[in-house]
Amino acid sequence: MKNDVTIEDEDLEKFPEDFFSYDKSDMRSVIKGFSFHIKEAYRHGQDLKVQKANKVVVLGMGGSAIGGDILKNYLSELNIIVNRQYKLTTEVDKETLVIASSYSGNTEETISAYKEAVRKNAQIICMTTGGKLAELAKTNRHEIIRLPKGLQPRVAIAYSFFPMLRILENAGMIDSKKTEVDRLAKTLDKAMYEDMGLKMSDKLNGKIPLIYAAENFIPAAYRWKTQLNENAKTMAFYNEFSELNHNELSATRNNVADFYCIIIRSGDEFSRMVKRMELTKEHYRKNGINVTEMLIKGETPLVRLFTAIYIGDWTSYYLALRYRTDPTPVEEVELFKKELGSFIS
Hints:
Blueprint: E1 5-7, H1 27-32, H2 34-43, E2 55-59, H3 62-74, E3 80-83, E4 96-101, H4 108-119, E5 123-128, H5 131-139, E6 143-146, H6 157-170, H7 178-188, H8 192-204, E7 208-213, H9 218-230, E8 237-240, E9 259-265, H10 271-286, E10 290-296, H11 301-322, H12 331-340
Parallel strand pairs: 2-3, 2-4, 4-5, 5-6, 7-8, 7-9, 9-10
Antiparallel strand pairs: 1-10
Helix pairs in contact: 2-6, 2-7, 3-6, 3-9, 7-11, 8-11, 9-11
């Protein structure tokens, strides 16, 4: 198979083997199983009967919401809205398909928005491992797609996306994507992506990452940022072309931190967008910020999008180990939830 990803400047120092001892929960095996997760997740909901809708609203937070972002980007021809609030951010009615996605089933923002969707008589499907959301869905006689337990929500990304793809197929809103999904699973079942993540983590070691992308890769750029936050436990930021050229570009003048910029692109961007990217690289390098361009090819938009995401997952994993950090636990998030206390709506 030809290499469909090009990364600039691939010099790499030897990775210390003893750093794997910091992966106490063996996240590496979970990430390596991504192709299997894709195939399994796509089977979830395959027999679900769904009515066609004029709008799709995905309720979710964190790792459960990113699937909605990818869905919206991938199926841009549909009216898809991702709701990350306690309240619904758009009008819903019986013609609206609401997908409540919460891996734990206890995400308070999702549960709150779900209850509002119930009051508005929307068509609702819940995706969860259990928890309060499953209890409410059972009470309200809403369909439940049961997700496999035992994963961190962020590494369950296949289960937050591919069942929704199957739901929209069943509703007759899109054609079958089975061929694309099979091709994607086969593509990502390659060791080279782990190696690419290892190389990228070497570049980001000791840096503050800036992840940039144009329209087709915006969900991937955001995913990189959140994975770097949760896995590597480090600050990271993302932005999109060409919005960043109207504001963030100015911030390079008083550059008071050690940033490293990664630009994710496909190589087939609009000519003016290509010029923006090239000028941005020149400007950043002139102002002392290193830039690596990651060129993602691939046979389909789905392959390209998830290839970028997968390399980011590996990058955040290896950066965690370079920081002598177990990538799995998120103690700060869990402590914050305890301090916040129980939610009653």
